[in-house]
Amino acid sequence: MPPPTDETSSYQLTESVSYLVNRLGVRLRELFTEQLAEHGLTVPAYRVLAALHHEGDQRLGDLASRTAIEQSTLSRLVSSMQRDGLVSRTRPEDNARTVAVNLTDRGRELVERVIPLVVEHERTITGGLGEEEVERFRRILRTMYENLEGGGGRR
Protein backbone atom coordinates (compact mmCIF):
# COMPACT_ATOMS: atom_id res chain seq x y z
CA MET A 1 0.00 0.00 0.00
CA PRO A 2 1.43 3.41 -0.96
CA PRO A 3 2.23 5.80 1.88
CA PRO A 4 -0.40 8.47 2.57
CA THR A 5 0.11 11.86 0.98
CA ASP A 6 -1.27 15.22 2.07
CA GLU A 7 -4.00 14.74 -0.52
CA THR A 8 -5.03 11.26 0.65
CA SER A 9 -4.72 11.94 4.37
CA SER A 10 -7.00 15.00 4.10
CA TYR A 11 -9.54 13.31 1.82
CA GLN A 12 -13.14 13.43 3.02
CA LEU A 13 -15.82 11.63 1.05
CA THR A 14 -18.48 14.24 1.73
CA GLU A 15 -16.23 17.01 0.36
CA SER A 16 -15.14 15.25 -2.83
CA VAL A 17 -16.41 16.74 -6.08
CA SER A 18 -17.59 13.39 -7.44
CA TYR A 19 -19.56 12.69 -4.27
CA LEU A 20 -21.20 16.13 -4.29
CA VAL A 21 -22.08 15.96 -7.99
CA ASN A 22 -23.52 12.47 -7.57
CA ARG A 23 -25.46 13.47 -4.46
CA LEU A 24 -26.94 16.45 -6.29
CA GLY A 25 -27.76 14.30 -9.33
CA VAL A 26 -29.53 11.65 -7.26
CA ARG A 27 -31.65 14.24 -5.46
CA LEU A 28 -32.47 16.11 -8.66
CA ARG A 29 -33.56 12.91 -10.35
CA GLU A 30 -35.76 11.94 -7.37
CA LEU A 31 -37.58 15.29 -7.40
CA PHE A 32 -37.78 15.51 -11.19
CA THR A 33 -39.07 11.93 -11.43
CA GLU A 34 -41.92 12.79 -9.07
CA GLN A 35 -42.87 15.89 -11.06
CA LEU A 36 -42.78 14.10 -14.40
CA ALA A 37 -44.72 11.08 -13.11
CA GLU A 38 -47.68 13.39 -12.53
CA HIS A 39 -47.73 13.82 -16.33
CA GLY A 40 -47.13 10.16 -17.14
CA LEU A 41 -43.49 10.72 -18.11
CA THR A 42 -40.14 9.33 -17.07
CA VAL A 43 -36.93 11.37 -17.11
CA PRO A 44 -35.65 9.61 -20.28
CA ALA A 45 -39.00 10.13 -22.08
CA TYR A 46 -38.93 13.81 -21.11
CA ARG A 47 -35.41 14.12 -22.53
CA VAL A 48 -36.59 12.66 -25.84
CA LEU A 49 -39.58 15.00 -26.04
CA ALA A 50 -37.51 18.04 -25.04
CA ALA A 51 -34.75 17.25 -27.55
CA LEU A 52 -37.26 16.80 -30.37
CA HIS A 53 -39.09 19.97 -29.32
CA HIS A 54 -35.85 21.97 -29.34
CA GLU A 55 -33.98 20.39 -32.26
CA GLY A 56 -36.78 19.03 -34.46
CA ASP A 57 -36.83 15.60 -36.10
CA GLN A 58 -33.72 13.53 -35.40
CA ARG A 59 -32.13 10.26 -36.34
CA LEU A 60 -31.97 7.77 -33.50
CA GLY A 61 -28.16 8.01 -33.18
CA ASP A 62 -28.26 11.80 -32.94
CA LEU A 63 -31.11 11.62 -30.44
CA ALA A 64 -29.15 9.10 -28.35
CA SER A 65 -26.21 11.49 -28.21
CA ARG A 66 -28.37 14.50 -27.28
CA THR A 67 -30.32 12.68 -24.58
CA ALA A 68 -27.44 10.64 -23.09
CA ILE A 69 -29.46 7.44 -23.56
CA GLU A 70 -27.78 4.33 -24.96
CA GLN A 71 -29.05 3.69 -28.49
CA SER A 72 -30.62 0.26 -27.94
CA THR A 73 -32.37 1.54 -24.79
CA LEU A 74 -33.51 4.60 -26.70
CA SER A 75 -34.89 2.45 -29.51
CA ARG A 76 -37.11 0.56 -27.05
CA LEU A 77 -38.15 3.83 -25.38
CA VAL A 78 -39.06 5.41 -28.73
CA SER A 79 -41.13 2.33 -29.61
CA SER A 80 -43.03 2.69 -26.34
CA MET A 81 -43.50 6.43 -26.88
CA GLN A 82 -44.72 5.71 -30.41
CA ARG A 83 -47.35 3.30 -29.03
CA ASP A 84 -48.39 6.08 -26.61
CA GLY A 85 -48.78 8.49 -29.53
CA LEU A 86 -46.03 10.87 -28.39
CA VAL A 87 -43.61 10.35 -31.28
CA SER A 88 -43.63 8.90 -34.76
CA ARG A 89 -40.95 7.54 -37.06
CA THR A 90 -40.57 8.55 -40.68
CA ARG A 91 -38.08 7.91 -43.45
CA PRO A 92 -36.62 11.15 -44.79
CA GLU A 93 -37.11 11.54 -48.55
CA ASP A 94 -33.43 12.33 -49.04
CA ASN A 95 -32.23 9.15 -47.26
CA ALA A 96 -34.60 6.18 -47.15
CA ARG A 97 -32.03 4.13 -45.23
CA THR A 98 -32.44 6.16 -42.05
CA VAL A 99 -35.40 6.74 -39.77
CA ALA A 100 -36.21 10.09 -38.20
CA VAL A 101 -38.00 10.35 -34.87
CA ASN A 102 -40.62 13.10 -34.82
CA LEU A 103 -42.88 14.70 -32.22
CA THR A 104 -46.58 14.13 -32.71
CA ASP A 105 -49.11 16.83 -31.82
CA ARG A 106 -49.81 14.93 -28.59
CA GLY A 107 -46.08 14.78 -27.74
CA ARG A 108 -45.68 18.50 -28.50
CA GLU A 109 -48.66 19.42 -26.30
CA LEU A 110 -47.31 17.30 -23.44
CA VAL A 111 -43.77 18.68 -23.55
CA GLU A 112 -45.09 22.24 -23.78
CA ARG A 113 -47.11 21.61 -20.61
CA VAL A 114 -44.08 20.17 -18.82
CA ILE A 115 -41.40 22.69 -19.85
CA PRO A 116 -42.69 25.39 -17.45
CA LEU A 117 -42.34 22.87 -14.59
CA VAL A 118 -38.78 22.15 -15.70
CA VAL A 119 -37.97 25.87 -15.80
CA GLU A 120 -39.37 26.27 -12.28
CA HIS A 121 -37.42 23.20 -11.15
CA GLU A 122 -34.21 24.80 -12.45
CA ARG A 123 -35.06 28.08 -10.69
CA THR A 124 -35.37 26.15 -7.43
CA ILE A 125 -32.05 24.38 -7.99
CA THR A 126 -30.20 27.61 -8.73
CA GLY A 127 -31.94 29.71 -6.09
CA GLY A 128 -29.54 32.07 -4.34
CA LEU A 129 -27.12 32.05 -7.28
CA GLY A 130 -26.65 34.94 -9.66
CA GLU A 131 -26.92 34.45 -13.43
CA GLU A 132 -23.12 34.70 -13.80
CA GLU A 133 -22.65 32.02 -11.15
CA VAL A 134 -25.15 29.74 -12.87
CA GLU A 135 -23.46 30.19 -16.23
CA ARG A 136 -20.02 29.57 -14.67
CA PHE A 137 -21.39 26.41 -13.02
CA ARG A 138 -22.70 25.21 -16.40
CA ARG A 139 -19.26 25.77 -17.95
CA ILE A 140 -17.58 23.91 -15.09
CA LEU A 141 -19.96 20.95 -15.46
CA ARG A 142 -19.36 20.83 -19.23
CA THR A 143 -15.59 20.91 -18.67
CA MET A 144 -15.78 18.10 -16.12
CA TYR A 145 -17.86 16.02 -18.52
CA GLU A 146 -15.42 16.68 -21.38
CA ASN A 147 -12.53 15.68 -19.10
CA LEU A 148 -14.16 12.29 -18.63
CA GLU A 149 -15.16 11.92 -22.28
CA GLY A 150 -11.54 12.51 -23.26
CA GLY A 151 -10.50 9.43 -21.29
CA GLY A 152 -9.55 11.33 -18.16
CA GLY A 153 -10.12 9.48 -14.94
CA ARG A 154 -9.27 6.10 -16.49
CA ARG A 155 -6.03 4.61 -15.34
Describe this structure in words.
The model has no long low-confidence stretch (mean pLDDT 90). The chain is built from seven helices and three strands. The protein has 155 residues and is mainly alpha-helical. It has a single domain, classed as Winged helix-like DNA-binding domain superfamily/Winged helix DNA-binding domain (Arc Repressor Mutant, subunit A).
Q: Specify the biggest β-sheet.
A: 3 strands, antiparallel
Low-confidence stretches: none
Rounded mean pLDDT score: 90
Task: State the order of secondary-structure elements, H for helix, E for strand.
Answer: HHHEHHEEHH
Fraction of residues in helices?
55-70%
Q: Measured on Cα atoms, how large is the radius of gyration?
A: 19 Å
* Name given to the CATH architecture: Orthogonal Bundle
Shape: globular
The proportion of residues in beta strands is 5-15%
List its salient traits.
about 160 residues, mainly alpha, Arc Repressor Mutant, subunit A, 3-stranded antiparallel sheet, about 5% strand, globular
Give a short overview.
The chain is mainly alpha-helical and 155 residues long. It has helices at residues 6-9, 17-37, 43-55, 60-67, 71-83, 105-125, 131-149, and strands at residues 58-59, 87-90, 100-103.
